[in-house]
Specification:
Length: 65
C-alpha cells in the first residue's frame, strides 16, 4: 500500500532538566492510503500535542546524548 503519513520516534517534552514532563514518548506509526485512523486516550495523554507536532504547529523535542 501507499504510505500517506509515516511518523517515527516522535518525542515531545516540556520544561527543563529539573522539571521535565513527557507529553509524547517515542511514538511511531504509518497511515496508508484508504485507511482511517483514530487517536484515543485520556485527557492530558498527548493527543493534541501529537497532532500539533505532525502538523508542525509545534516542534518535536530533539534529545542530545
Amino acid at each position: 500500500m501507499e504510505k500517506i503519513l509515516e511518523v517515527e520516534n516522535i518525542e515531545k517534552y516540556y520544561g527543563n532538566k529539573s522539571n521535565l514532563t513527557k507529553a509524547i514518548d517515542n511514538i511511531s506509526f504509518v497511515v496508508n492510503k484508504g485507511e482511517f485512523v483514530g487517536i484515543m486516550g485520556a485527557s492530558g495523554s498527548g493527543k493534541t500535542t501529537l497532532l500539533n507536532c505532525i502538523s508542525t504547529i509545534d516542534k518535536v523535542t530533539c534529545r542530545t546524548y
